[in-house]
Request: fold
Amino acid sequence: MVSPVVPSSGALTPVGLPDVRLLPGFWGSQPTRTIIDHCHTWMERVGWIANFTGEPRRGREFSDSEVYKLMEAMAWAGDPRIEELTRVVAAAQQPDGYLNTKWLGARYTDLEWGHELYCYGHLIQAGIARKRTHGEDELWEVVRRAADHVCATFMEGTGVCGHPEIEMALVELYRETGAERYLEMARRFIERRGRPALADIELGRAYYQDDLPVRQAEVFRGHAVRALYLACGVVDLAVETGDKELLEIVERQWERTVARRTHLTGGMGSRHAGEAFGDDFELPPDRAYNETCAGVASVMLAHRLLLATGDPRYADLAERTLYNVVAAAVALDGTSFFYTNPLQVRVPGEKIEGVSPRAEGGLRAPWREVSCCPTNIARTFASLPAYFATADGRGIQIQHITPSVIAHDGLRVRVSTGYPWSGSVTLIVEEAPPEPRRIAVRIPGWAGGGRQEWERSWRPGEEVRLDIPMAPRWVRADPRVDAVRGCVAVERGPLVYCAESPGDAPLLSEIEVSTDTPPVERGPSLEVAARHVVSEEDGWPYGNVRTKRGEPMVLWLVPYHRWGNHGPATMRVWLPEAR
Reply:
């Protein structure tokens, strides 16, 4: 199976990359090759690849992992440059399997912040991608030696990594090899956490999920990417060991996190301090962090839970996050990226041509000192077809509607659609076995939820159609989300919309919208009724503030994933509602 995740059991199985071909459309037209080229060029420019050749080291302590994520993307995309990168990486591996360009002389002396095991996790995932797309080669040998070194070093004791990631990689390596030691090592890493296993730090042990054992936690907390990567590993472990109780624990943690700690876009991580989840309903739009990597990790987790349980709500969240965090993170041309994805930007960002020293910013940057996000986008887009369809003993389920051709068990279906701009979907059967097969399409929760299903003996050329309602809709938050109380947002289909104010356009802080009339569609944009609300300044912004409302006006909204592509601008998703 050519897929990033191949569970040995579960309600559904993935339909792998060779059997899902994306056609031109929202996802099939993403600039995946451009993103891979861009990442490769920048990692050569900033010296992260050269670190493996013994040159003076450059980059953060985890920069090795970015090379490995790029290699994973190349493996899924069939990029031949992976062979040269493999030779460079292999030459740096020590005889006992140790491989790291930062800590060679001081191995495992800083498990809290060193990221050595984290880097191994990404190395293993790159090797698995290469093995599943190409077969065993030098990279596979490097991965096996590194993984065996980890088992020999950490099977006994209490050590874990400050940044979870290796856990899910080890389980996937077990799935690929059948070697029980990798599954056992993953289990021990997971069970040691929260005993505690790491030193206390200023941000607290919750930062790296070491405050509570996994089985005692009720919600995701701490650093959002760490928490979500750990949850992926826990789901993988639960599935492979048949631990239903453990799987249900993660489901409950996910449920509370989605219900109380997730932004409208699907973004996770409300706090800049620690890049962390906030408390329940702590969801400020302007201070939302919503790291791109957390969006990727959320999709990875939702996909695993979907395969394990078959519950479409997990695909619902994955869809929301893909369209409104992952797609927003990269510019339309594939050469600049957001690290954070707030829902409001008060001051237009500064255009950056080189390396940005900051994660935050109102404009995408071509590269950052911490550039985990571009490589994460690269590997996600390169493997994306494997997330779009699933199968069971009765047929296939189209989890994410996009122009594509899906083949499984003698059945081949062409999906023709303009989604997410249009809700019209036509399924054309191109090949079919004589036996009955079921074709199912997930209906998003915002459109009523559930599945549309057809089951029969199909003939080539047969078609079925469905229409998903796509009218724009006003959205209000739970009143406990006090940061946006009195505000509304607009969604259409799976897309969240925002107001964007470039240049000398009206200040978004001085506009309120009327919900008496529905938004009007104008191509990919929307029109809503609004008016200026200007406060008279008297030197003190509290008390009896006098406001003056202007004449009605039209406010244009654009899909959130498209904002920031035309230069510096202010932006907001949540708009004050006229009273």
In short: Residues 168 and 233 are 4 Å apart (CA to CA).
